[in-house]
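>> received
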Amino acid sequence: MPTVPDTFARLAAIPGVTALRNAPLAEHARFGIGGPADVLVDAATREAFTGALQAARASGLQTVVIGGGSNLIVSDDGFRGVVLRFSASGIAAEGTTVRADAGAVLQDLVDFTVDRGLQGLETMTGIPGWTGAAVYGNAGAYGHSISERVERVCFFDGDRVRHTDKAGCAFQYRESIFKRRKDWVILSAELVLDPGDAAALRSTADRIRAVRDGKYPPAMKCAGSIFKNYLLAGLPAEVAAEVPPGAVIEGKVPSAWFLERIGAKGMRSGDIRVADYHANLIYNAGAGTARDLTALIDELKQRVEDRWGMPLEEEVQYIGFPDRAART
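>> returned
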């Protein structure tokens, strides 16, 4: 079986690839937490990425693909294997159709569409991360999700580059087919937007950005909301009966409503804390560790489970946690 040095040498020789040994993943995760990857690969072109992914998988080493790291919890021990990122970041428009590479920063995509008077993504301003991850997790805010605008997705299935339409993406609330088929990797997405007034769209985006930055300051080491909200229709009848109508937003009950009732605000584990103003916001106050972070997440989940008999589900993805990877 090829060793880490052998695999590193093979990957580094691929045109368009930048490969690093013992790369600190904390630098690539918004929590600022995590040990090193044996090998970290950035691939700037589709050909470089598909070649690198095939080579990494063929090596027999553990292999994982990540995006911008905004929704990532990395083990203190890091990742024993190869971590790959597809860093192509092109954005182009033809009429109201916009094509974005998976490595395009989501905020850059939002600004691109707003500046061109294209309506449909302005409510996503301020959401960190890359476009591919936004499609992967069907990111959204203020009652809208990116799936509303996705027309077509280009992905690599491990053998060849393929395309699927919106139906094939099997979008649900914070879900897509790509979460279930982790061997499929998004390369780009085509989105269809509506004509709009650029000034009005910018005003909406700026207003939303101010609110979001107030909740989640850009310098805060966090992943935004840590848990998914609940669909009201999916709650047990006796639990739904407890929820006041005013707490229901777009058919969803915020996880924060439940977390507040089990005393989540202000809880802490080491330097990992729950915000005292938002029960679904966990952040690293300084020298937090992944052990502290996962301990606090598990405690919150257990308290909700004990009181209402139903699980909380994380929005975050785990890297370097074999016992948790299957759950995300």
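>> Residues 260 and 279 are 6 Å apart (CA to CA).
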